[in-house]
């Protein structure tokens, strides 16, 4: 699988060359050159911030079309709990789950069920494994994991070494189908996640902690949402007592879709939960400075308000969160617990390793020389971080110059000074220009 496979892409024809995206990218992965934006693949963490702020819709998420369903003989839906917050007046999750079956799925396995198992296992790890550094950082948000991987390598050891609920749900769903339908080959089974964000698409296509994901396709919530509405109306008319019971998760699992949901499921008050990529970075910087070591757990979500704020949803995240809170009021606390059957499915197969994409060079001496050159260039720049050069900051422009991807004159202030100096030189040289040559018998200008 390609190392730089991403779920955020760019339509250069729609790009107008504005600098909104470069100012919001948390890993400084975007540049604007020759009037068009470009994404540095190695730095992109697929958080989707550029998609949110692009008024020209030039940044686009990649996911699978609904027609992918036709590729498989037996289809299993993995609905993210954020899906339930998209519907108004919903008071029974079974209405949504049965609508998925009516849409064309043969089975449904809630990601919320896997979330409860991850929470249960996390509680045990925190109680028994004293060797793990504290605080532990949730590994559920793939954008956060990739952010730590490229910007905060010293914090990699703090990541909770458990698969995200989506991956655990996929493995459990596959095992259930294979046990019930041994006549089906793996290629005939489609495990399809219904996602609120683009980062989770990348996590299934280019996983970091496992060789491959058992998720075969990813649908966007916003794509399947209008199709479910008509089925839900029909199902709701039958009355709650006649709706088949499919739901198998409790309050803890459903709550994972909002910021703080994973943390509260740990039944501990010594935690911190932050959402929004800028707030996440601030927390990670504080932790890197050893200012949050008294905590036991840190939950971080790249999207505002949590997964309900993903770019593939349809509803305002705060409205969706309110709906989830109402929906879970009368649910049991938890219906799923970790057992030995999940041991081989829940843990990381390989550790997440540092990706040195921000290093100037792998050679130490060369890196020092480039760093010195970068500092000299940066000292000559205005330090305004205006972005007019196509880089997000003066420091990144200096870095681009050192790497050979830009010129100092890309800075409009440096270019202005250069042009002023050039004009001054031209004016000064004008005094040294000799008079025009005339032959001895040629009259002076104005004489006949």
CA-atom Rg in angstroms: 28 Å
Give the amount of beta strand, in percent: 5-15%
Mean pLDDT: 93
**Helix-residue proportion:** 25-40%
Fold and architecture overview:
With 448 residues, the protein is of the alpha/beta class. It folds into three domains: 54 residues, Alpha-Beta Plaits; 281 residues, no CATH class; 64 residues, 3-methyladenine DNA Glycosylase II, Chain A, domain 3 (Orthogonal Bundle), CATH 1.10.15.40. Helices cover 38% and strands 10% of the residues. It is built from 16 helices and eleven strands. Strands 6-5-8-9 form a four-stranded parallel beta sheet, sandwiched between helices. α14 packs across α15. It is elongated. The mean pLDDT is 93.
Write the layout of secondary structure elements.
Elements: E1 8-10, H1 20-24, E2 30-33, E3 36-39, H2 49-53, E4 59-61, E5 74-79, H3 93-103, E6 107-108, H4 111-128, E7 136-137, H5 142-151, H6 165-180, E8 189-195, H7 199-205, E9 217-220, H8 221-236, H9 251-255, H10 261-264, E10 271-275, H11 277-288, E11 297-301, H12 317-327, H13 343-346, H14 364-379, H15 394-403, H16 412-430
Parallel strand pairs: 5-6, 5-8, 7-11, 8-9, 10-11
Antiparallel strand pairs: 1-4, 2-3
Helix pairs in contact: 3-8, 4-6, 14-15
